Amino acid sequence: MAPAVPLAVLALVALVAPGLGVAPGCDYPAHRWCSSRDVAAACQVQGRCPTLPSPAAAPVELGLYYESLCPACREFLVLKLFPTWLLLPEEMLNITLVPYGNAQERNVSGKLDFQCQHGPEECLGNMMEACLMHEAKNFSTYFPVIFCLESGTSVTKNLEACLQLYAPEVDSSRVTACVQGDTGVALMHHNAQVTEALDPPHQYVPWITVNGKHTDELQAQAEASLLGLVCLLYQGEKPEICGSSKAPKFPSGCRR
Q1: Which pLDDT tens digit goes with each residue over 225-242?
Q2: Per the database entry, which stretches of residues form a coiled coil (predicted)?
Q3: In the chain, how many H helices and how many E strands?
Q4: Which of 4, 112, 118, 180 is the most exposed place for a label (fewest CB within 10 A)?
Q5: 33: Cβ–Cβ under 8 A, 6 or more apart, which residues?
Q6: What span, in angstroms and rounded, lies between the C-alpha atoms of 4 and 21?
């Protein structure tokens, strides 16, 4: 006796392929037609597969253009951005950090030189964080270290301690070599180009972009409640943490 065919499969075949025909481009047996979105699309049965998983929503893209010693930048990164990143699932928020801010790039006798709003110490901090990103590569590895640097008493003197605490697998000597060599200069040149290419041009820091855009409204919303803004914009299934919350006011940004 032939094995019984599930009624659900028979019903699907009857609805989709009358006369037991196969949908054009479908090379899968009927019992697999609803196994994934790709298979359902190939077999032209998406509308008859109620159990298909929802497509993954794109993360909210947030860009932070900042400088290492700007008080307002440090406040935003430490008190808003880092906690929001910790609270939300990884797939909800994608963060790009660009340490450069209101710095100026000059060509002095064929060599690039940088002048920063808060002096040479800030240029060192910017380059140190850029080199840290370059060496660590993984955002979840370097962001806690940058949080540690920005929340401490000195951005430039606590690298070793912050690495030991948050990313002991990263060799501090490689970060130092980057800062002291051509790689650090190249990274800062890249950050200068990215910052200067902003449209509209940045007028202060922190300068925040959301999904590639900057408006006064988005900036104000991000500073008032970054968590709420990300939850509002994310198109996928939202976690319980998403909800309204009041946030502290931040000091005025570091204007050019």
Answers
A1: 999 999 999 999 999 999
A2: none
A3: 10, 7
A4: 4
A5: 12, 16, 26, 39, 40, 43, 45, 49
A6: 20
* In the chain, where the domains are located: 60-237
Which tokens in the block code for residue 204? 């202060």
* Conformational region of residue 106, where left means phi above 0, alpha means psi within -120 to 50, and beta covers everything else: beta
Amino acid at 121: E
Q: How far apart (Å, rounded) are the C-alpha atoms in residues 236 and 56?
A: 7
**Looking at 211-247, which runs of residues are DSSP E strands?**
none
Q: Report yes or no on whether pTM surpasses 0.70.
A: yes
To 5 degrees, how large is the angle CA 184–CA 187–CA 188?
Answer: 90
Q: Rounded to whole angstroms, how far apart are CA atoms 179 and 187?
A: 9
Q: How far apart are the first and last CA of the chain?
A: 83
| Residues 40/52, Cβ–Cβ less than 8 Å | yes
Strand partners, 169: none
| pLDDT tens digits for range 158-208 | 999 999 999 999 999 999 999 999 999 999 999 999 999 999 999 999 999
pLDDT of residue 120: 97
* Fold held by 60-237: Glutaredoxin (3.40.30)
From CA 76, how far away is CA 204, in angstroms rounded?
13
Q: Rg of the chain's alpha carbons, rounded to an integer?
A: 25
- 128-157: per-residue pLDDT in tens? 999 999 999 999 999 999 999 999 999 999
Question: What was the pLDDT predicted at 253?
Answer: 67
